[in-house]
Amino acid sequence: MNLRFGIFPVPPPLKPKCRVYDLKARLDWGEPALTIIDVRDRHEFAVSHIVGAVNLPMSSLVQQALIHLELDRDLYICGDTDEEIVEAATQLRASGYLNVAEIQGGLPAWKAVGYPVEAGVATAIPLR
Asked: H or E segment at 35?
C-alpha cells in the first residue's frame, strides 16, 4: 500500500494496460473515484457485468462518454475481447480522455478469478 506523507493510503496508480487484480485492488481501496465502462452491447451487459460498471456500447461510446464523463476521470474499459477493449480505449484517448486503462482479458478474466458480477441490472447511462 502506498502512503502519502506517511499517513494516508492512496490507491494503486492507473496504468494504460491493467490486470483484473489491479482494478480489484483499486476498488478495494474504498473510494476509487473511477468509472468502469463496459463496451459490449446492452443485451450482453444485462446478462452479466462487473459490479458497478456502466454500459456504453461501442456504437455510442465516445458520444455518451463526452456527455457524461469528465476528461480527467479514471476510466477502466471492459469488454469480451482485448481487441474491442483496445479499440474503445483508443477512441477515448483520441477524444481527449487522459486516464484510460484497458482491462486485459476483460470480463472473461474478471469472471475467471471469481470476482463479483451482477446480472439483470440496468446500469446504463441513458442515451440522449
From this structure: strand 34-38
CATH of residue 59: 3.40.250.10
φ/ψ of 9, rounded to 5, equals -70, 150
Say what the pTM is.
0.85
How far is residue 77's CA from residue 63's CA, in Å, rounded to a whole number?
A: 16
12 φ, ψ (degrees, to nearest 5)? -60, 145
Tell me whether residue 125 is in a domain: no
Q: Is the dihedral of CA 118, 43, 86, 112 positive or negative?
A: positive
Q: CA angle, corner 126, sides to 122 and 128, nearest 5?
A: 160
Q: Would 126 be classed as within a structural domain?
A: no
3-state secondary structure of 69: coil
- Number of compact structural domains in the chain: 1
For 83-128, write each residue's pLDDT tens digit. Answer: 999 999 999 999 999 999 999 999 999 999 999 999 875 545 554 4
